[in-house]
Amino acid sequence: MKFAAFRTCAALALLFIGSAVAVAFEAIPSAEQRLLADARDGELQQFEFMEAALIAGGLQDSAAREAVLRERELKYQSLDLAVIARLPRDQRPAALLEGMHQQILTGSFQPTATLVQQTFATGDFNCVTATIIYHDLCERVGVNAEIIAQSGHVCSRLITSREEIETTRADWFTNPELRQSEQPRHAISAVALVGRIYYNRALAKLEQKEFAAAIELLEKSLACDARDRDAQENLLAGLNNWALSLCEQGEYATAARRITTGLALKADYQPLLSNDLHVHQQWVAQLCREQNFEQALQLLDAGKSRRPTAPLFVSGQRAVYTAWLKSCNEQGDTAAAAKVLRRAQEQLGAQVKLTVEARPMPKVISAKGRSERP
Question: What's the predicted TM-score (pTM) here?
């Protein structure tokens, strides 16, 4: 479930949700608007858990959702929940898990099987869809369970005994060797689990380099769980990689805006800091090729006001003046060359000496987020 290994704090998500997300959500379908509004307090009042999962999975049409909910009831009937509900309480969790894998999760584990409607249709599942269905079944037969999470994974835990249940494993209760957690896990709400659907959908978009759609899905994920570090990290990584993609396409101004958005969320996020310089280096070089030296200098001045110690912004002006002076000399415009030289000396110091050989811009290496999927 993870796209990049960068850490941040819960305040990042809260900051983002307080500003840009509210604007983005105005254009989304009404069912989703109502779901995200319902999710603000961390609990679902207007929507049943399973319907919320379907909306998060992209089913905006009520008739389509009702069809899946009817299919769910047929699947649940095959488990004979009335019989399971009459079992001793300590036997119900195992019976539910066994029945769920025999009657519903009849396909195979697929990391990308993150939509509940597809799980009901095909039997393929991942930890999110398996845990959603298992949690829903637990509520039907009076099993007190909670949802627990670690980075890149979710499962269930019995509240009374504190026993963890890997919902993707049909043999969990019959194979004691499986019952060892590799990482600490913490309880999350049903709303937060719904957010993991948005998160997994965002990962697919990131892998396809559909950055705009991915960022919107990550915003929705954080609206469901503002403390989800994986979503926070991938929001930053997504903005970073989007900026790099735009830069490669020559859309430097838009790339710079994506960098600015990311740095407003986390000012010390190193990939964004590196690519702030990379994007501006490429942008200034392009402006110089277009002989738009004035705008190139303005760009560097603005950067220096933000980051006064960054090598690009500190020494970049000299390279631009050198290129400008060379252009004037090549055109035989000695008057313009003299003006450029005087201006350079005013800005860089009277003792500065410029040559007509183009001085390279300070080199910056771009940094990309990593794509990982368990």
Answer: 0.85
